[in-house]
């Protein structure tokens, strides 16, 4: 019986030790995750600030938007593509983040980068400005939140600027895609015609039309999600939402 009690005591001590070790590991992982998120958000804030400064400087020197995209495209492509990490690491709605990031990657690489004749469209400036101000505000908000020193102005900007910036950005994206349609139809770019050995066809022109139509159901979801978040954060309303 004494041996059994001793084994039980040793077993209990071992379990307690394992639990303490597991707690320490969780704390280390939590610290590392927070450190990485902080670095990520600081880097993204800095990147979009660099982009904003480059855009302002270009316009002040040239007095026109023509050539703007070409001058900032490398910075834009790098930081917007880097945002693919965000779908997994940023603590927000997977649907909201996924739709936003994927649509912007699409706009950068498959529209503006690939269809050079539209790079000087005024609509490109619309979504560039909307994206840039939105991202500076959003990443600043995440950074200060992680550091537990969130200025009220940053929080206010995060949940007020989008009211204008989201529609402006969407308008810029849609107008840019619309401007690309004649070129895509004429050249047949990215399209697959029959017959071919895979026996499949794909028409990029109609794909773009479907993409434009998809904004109709998706944009209100994202916009009203942000409005609900605004009421909750700024006005303390209790909002019950289904998990995405």
Automatic annotation (TrEMBL):
Q: Which GO terms describe its biological process?
A: fatty acid elongation; sphingolipid biosynthetic process; very long-chain fatty acid biosynthetic process
Q: In which pathway does it act?
A: Lipid metabolism; fatty acid biosynthesis
EC number per UniProt: 4.2.1.134
Say which domain of life the source belongs to: Eukaryota
Topology relative to the membrane, per the entry?
A: Multi-pass membrane protein
The answer to keyword Membrane applying to this record is: yes
Q: Which UniProt keywords apply?
A: Endoplasmic reticulum, Fatty acid biosynthesis, Fatty acid metabolism, Lipid biosynthesis, Lipid metabolism, Lyase, Membrane, Transmembrane, Transmembrane helix
Q: Where is this region: Disordered?
A: 1-21
What one GO molecular function would you report for this record?
very-long-chain (3R)-3-hydroxyacyl-CoA dehydratase activity
Q: Which reaction does it catalyse?
A: (3R)-hydroxyhexadecanoyl-CoA = (2E)-hexadecenoyl-CoA + H2O; a very-long-chain (3R)-3-hydroxyacyl-CoA = a very-long-chain (2E)-enoyl-CoA + H2O
- InterPro entries from the entry? Tyr_Pase-like_PTPLA
A GO CC annotation given for this chain: endoplasmic reticulum membrane
Q: Which residues cross the membrane?
A: 39-60, 81-112, 124-147, 159-184, 204-224
Which family is it part of? Belongs to the very long-chain fatty acids dehydratase HACD family.
Q: What does this protein do?
A: Catalyzes the third of the four reactions of the long-chain fatty acids elongation cycle. This endoplasmic reticulum-bound enzymatic process, allows the addition of two carbons to the chain of long- and very long-chain fatty acids/VLCFAs per cycle. This enzyme catalyzes the dehydration of the 3-hydroxyacyl-CoA intermediate into trans-2,3-enoyl-CoA, within each cycle of fatty acid elongation. Thereby, it participates to the production of VLCFAs of different chain lengths that are involved in multiple biological processes as precursors of membrane lipids and lipid mediators.
Protein name, per record: Very-long-chain (3R)-3-hydroxyacyl-CoA dehydratase
Q: Which organism is it from?
A: Microcebus murinus
Taxonomic classification, please?
A: Eukaryota, Metazoa, Chordata, Craniata, Vertebrata
């Amino acid at each position: 019986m004494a041996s059994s009690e001793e084994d039980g005591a040793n077993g209990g001590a071992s379990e307690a030790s394992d639990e303490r070790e597991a707690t320490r590991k969780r704390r280390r992982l939590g610290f590392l995750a927070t450190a990485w998120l902080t670095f990520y958000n600081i880097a993204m804030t800095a990147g979009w600030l660099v982009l904003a400064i480059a855009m302002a400087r270009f316009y002040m020197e040239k007095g026109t938007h023509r050539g703007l995209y070409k001058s900032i495209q490398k910075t834009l492509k790098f930081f917007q593509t880097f945002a693919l990490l965000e779908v997994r690491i940023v603590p927000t709605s997977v649907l909201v983040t996924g739709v936003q990031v994927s649509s912007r990657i699409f706009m950068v690489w498959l529209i503006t980068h690939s269809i050079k004749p539209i790079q000087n469209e005024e609509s490109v400036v619309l979504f560039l400005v909307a994206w840039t101000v939105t991202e500076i505000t959003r990443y600043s908000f995440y950074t200060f939140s992680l550091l537990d020193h969130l200025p009220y102005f940053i929080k206010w900007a995060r949940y007020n600027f989008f009211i204008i910036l989201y529609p402006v950005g969407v308008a810029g994206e849609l107008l840019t895609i619309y401007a690309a349609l004649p070129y895509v139809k004429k050249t047949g770019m990215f399209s697959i015609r029959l017959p071919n050995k895979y026996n499949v066809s794909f028409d990029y022109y109609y794909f773009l039309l479907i993409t434009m139509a998809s904004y109709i159901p998706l944009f209100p979801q994202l916009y009203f999600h942000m409005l609900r978040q605004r009421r909750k954060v700024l006005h303390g309303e209790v909002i019950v939402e289904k998990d995405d």
